[in-house]
Design a protein that fits this description.
This protein is of the alpha+beta class and about 200 residues long. The protein has 2 helices and 10 strands; from the N terminus they run ααββββββββββ. The radius of gyration is 25 Å and the shape is globular.
């Protein structure tokens, strides 16, 4: 009888002990840890979306007209994450992103502003600060918190972008930040879900 009671108590307490051990291990995990394979996969997905190619040839009144535009993007991976600090802007939209500080651990401090379309009843510029934002490799993820308390995700990749306007053109290269997400209405009235924030004063010939 004593043996039966002892076995019953062991069977009852063992799952509880296992649960405590597993829970303790889970609590010890770093919350900001992201699998390298997930980072690489998401980085490549965004880089692919920031690349495009258009090549059209047609005749207009007997003349051959060729239209060509190619944009090639590649991740701009830096060994020292602090080098990502700086100001990035979308020239034709009035969008600005400033990374005032990037720590060696990838944590980011900064903010930015977005120019609103003409005719908007609100102020012409909407400002935000970055919250819970971090860089993994060349991938940046976090949250934009606006002055009115609203929030929106921010996700993108630091890239080197090469734009060519002919098949034999060597192109113009520039470093910056490629961001994707919810379509935004630009000051010109168009909607874009992919924006290239060029690093201020940085064009690579």
């Amino acid at each position: 009888m004593q043996t039966t009671v002892t076995n019953w108590l062991v069977a009852l307490t063992l799952p509880v002990l296992i649960g405590v051990v597993i829970g303790t291990r889970g609590m010890g995990q770093e919350p900001d840890t992201v699998a390298p394979s997930d980072i690489q996969k998401r980085t490549q997905e965004i880089v692919s979306q920031m690349s495009r190619k258009e090549h059209e040839v047609r005749e207009v009144f007997g003349r051959r007209v060729e239209k060509f535009r190619a944009i090639r993007s590649e991740p701009d991976i830096k060994a020292n994450l602090e080098e990502y600090a700086g100001t990035y802007e979308v020239g034709d939209c009035g969008y600005v992103l400033t990374l005032s500080h990037v720590g060696k651990d990838g944590k980011v401090e900064g903010g930015g502003s977005e120019k609103l379309p003409e005719g908007t009843l609100q102020t012409s510029v909407r400002r935000f600060i970055l919250r819970d934002t971090r860089i993994h490799g060349a991938l940046l993820t976090g949250t934009r918190r606006y002055e009115d308390g609203a929030t929106a995700p921010i996700e993108g990749v630091f890239i080197i972008r090469t734009e060519r306007h002919s098949p034999i053109d060597s192109g113009i290269r520039a470093s910056g930040f490629g961001m994707i997400g919810t379509p935004v209405k630009t000051p010109t009235g168009t909607h874009q879900d992919k924006l290239f924030y060029q690093r201020r004063g940085n064009i690579i010939r």
